[in-house]
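Researcher: Go.
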Amino acid sequence: MIKSKGGGMELKALSRIRTRLAALLAVVLTLVPVLYGTADPAGAADNAAKPADGQTAGQTSGQAAGDAEGGAGLTGRSDPYYSEVLERWKKEGASADHKAQIRIPGSRIAGHAEGAKVQTGAYQGKDNVLIWNAGRSEWIEYEVDVEQGGLYTLTMSYHPFVDSKNRKPIALNITVDGKNPFLESKSIELYRHWKDKLPVRTDDRGDEIRPVAEDISGWQTWELRDKAGAYADALQWYLPEGRHKIRLNGSDPMALESILLQPPAKTEAYAAVRQSQPAAGAVTAEPVTIEAERVQWKSDSSLSLAYDNDIANTPYVQGRITYNTINGERWNAGNQEISWSFEAPETGYYHIAMRAQQGFVSNRSSFRTVLVNGKVPFSELKAYRFLYASGWRGLTLADEENRPYEFYLEKGTNTISMRVTYAPLKPLAVELEEVIVELRKLFADVSALTGGVDDKNRTWDMERDLPGFVEGLQATGDRIDAIREKLTELNGRPDSVSQGLVTARKDIDAMLADADEIPYDPGRLVEIQGKVADQIEALGSQPLQLDRLFVVPAGQPLPKMEASAGEKFWGGVANFFDSFKAKGKWSEDNEEALDVWMFRGRDYVNLLQGLVDEQFTPQTGIKVKVNLLKDEKQLVLMNAAGIAPDVALGMPQDIPFDYAIRGGIYNLKQFPDFENFFGRFAPGSWTPFYYDGGYYGVPETQSFQMMYYRKDILDRLGLKVPDTWEELYRILPVLQQNGMNFTPVEHNAFMQMHGAEYYTPDGTKTGLGSDKSYEAFKMWTDLQNKYAVDQRMDSFYMHFREGSYPIGIADINTYIQLTVAAPELNGLWGLAPVPGVRQADGQVARWLGGSMQSSVIMKNAKRPAEGWEFIKWWTSAAVQERFGTDLETLNGVTFRWNTSNIEAFTKLPWRDDDLTAIMEQWKWFREIPNVPGSYFMERELRNAWTRTVIGGMNYRTSLETAVKEVDREIRRKVQEFGFISPDGTVIRRMNLPSITKPWEGVEPYVQK
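Model: Structure:
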């Protein structure tokens, strides 16, 4: 097509006009959220007056104010940090110089949430205490009369509930007079005490099995601190003279004896403390050696033991796995505390030394709060620095001149405790967060300037078009440099974080080198934000590994803590040759034992082997050997070599079908009791394992898609949690007007809920050519084309945390992530079933699946009947509950076992209200069946979506293209596997299972 010169000039002029109009529109849209937030839209005021259950009015108004100022949208928090509030309080005259103490009995509650499970009585040896059996988000409240205004710390005397369903710390959201005074008050934790079960068991090869911790919690006290360990001292609350209300909001049960309000304790420097201590004669006893793995208690069950084959570690058994150290990679998060008990032989002064390994992150220092007999002896130990060093080192607690500290100990039982902290780094983390805010503002300015349009015909002059931008970006780069210098000084040397900041600064300099090019690619600013955010996360990790601690009489030489060069050499040689020794070869396994391979980690294998030896073998007489399968491809190779196992566990969802069509796996319907066993699981969880009339895998674990929502944000906007897609569509404009959105959604939510079938019943072609399928596909693509939902999403967790996606759909693993890694949202988010489609009878259909893992019996199994008995035992409720409990105890909440056994699932530590939502979704669980060639389905549906949403193709034409491609591949594969002849004649039909009703098996487990 030939254009005239004049026409080209007109097009450029129109382009410039378009760009300017877009920029103006962007500015308007940028201002709308602020105006909307302050204008109190219809219903918002009423809703703010009636906060959601578990949320105070103060939280609602605080969130609204923070968002109106743009703070929450940019930083992910509307509340100030504790350090900021404390500084303001002190400037306003708040003082800790008082001697007032106020004890509030736990039984003297002034109020509680409706339906809260609270009572007063005796508990574990104490009378007249509060027994709070919380199972869902609820609150209790106390009133206190303060005669002397000032700063107070809060110390709680409490007893966690000790049982299989309650294992995580007690999480509390604490408000004073209806408000959270600072961000950290939303996520206070009361910890449990754990201890590893000893002696450590060994397997049949002589290797130790990592022990599982048991909850030994009793009545204990805790001076409230921030969850992250970001501050050296306990948190302080400012209470002016008068009456105040202290509210505890939580969902974890406990007994509460009292809350003690008192002025913060003062910890003097070492010199003053040493001078004030009594004179004592020299101690003439042998040094006390403490094996680090023999703890008195630990605050986190996942603080596991680790095996290290350094020859100087004790105990050391050559060629055998011996858990002889505290796992440094696990002991790295805020407030994780370990305590050791020892006997001091005489009263007097001692040095404290330890054999430690602090080489996890190159050049990075780690910090610990060191306590002796429950108290920090002097201020230098509030955040003691352990410098980076490669390999194991002998360290003595000493000052900056390397003069060992002297600790005064009374004869008899004493304790040493060490708690993770990153208090020295917290101010730098806050500064880096402010850098991210600056970068986001700069990005928003550029986006408003360009209107989000990348116009290559436009020439930019940033000094003229966006005054102050270049200077702002330069200032941000300078600030990054200043933070890096502070970090290097604090750390003692440059480390990976400081190097990451160097990279971020170089990126800024590269942009400034040609600032007028920035509008063409403003996404580089977002990339820099990500790099800075990574460094913030890295600052919080403080690993430290310990082998032994030594308590040495002052003046005596320290014991040998490091291996000599010769010992290291011979130890390395021994370890080298040990690595060639065959351990655990499948060919060497006991021929009489059932051979089970597990496609999971070593801890999973050891746990299961322990359960087998404890329960299954004594009950059935069947010996079992559980082996570690590191790669699913090994199963293919071993099967081809004729040495496949009898049973394989942890198989990905598609493996059973792939083996079934090739005759490599056992049809479980051949067992006479299969029909009774079938009812143990949701019918929709069996569909991927169906092939040609048989079932070839057993559901083991399954994931769920659930809807997550921010109570605080929806409440502020006057929005209800949508129950159907129509209700969701109605709230989307309000979200988008406030700069927020909803998550992208996958096709199965629309196809299944609207009655579309992916394949015809005989399995010979796709079923997506139906009218229902076209309707469902249009609804799927309308999310972007009509309702302006984002096309793609990088991290729902991050969007949800910062509030840009206050509602969205994600899998159940997000639940654990939010519980563990988003403490500031404690009590501010909820879980709901995914939106559904209302049926003619009023029922809301929510058909949806989720990824699963399975157990299978191999076709060439030597003992298929014994394998079937094992699978029935393994997937039973009692065993799945025990395995899930032990796994979570050993590794922490992040290892929640999402068992497919619904009875076992309900006994894991879910909150009651969240479990109710999961049960509602469970009854609609239905996975997509498999047919030969079904691997083409996902790819072609994604291509169809791209053609319609990004390419603008008509939805029907696009889906028709996908149907043709999928049908072609299915036809080729069903011919290959003998379902149809080359001329198209149907030889046999697959008769795919059809599930049209929700699973009634859920009903016994629904909270009434």
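Model: The first strand starts at residue 102 and ends at 105.
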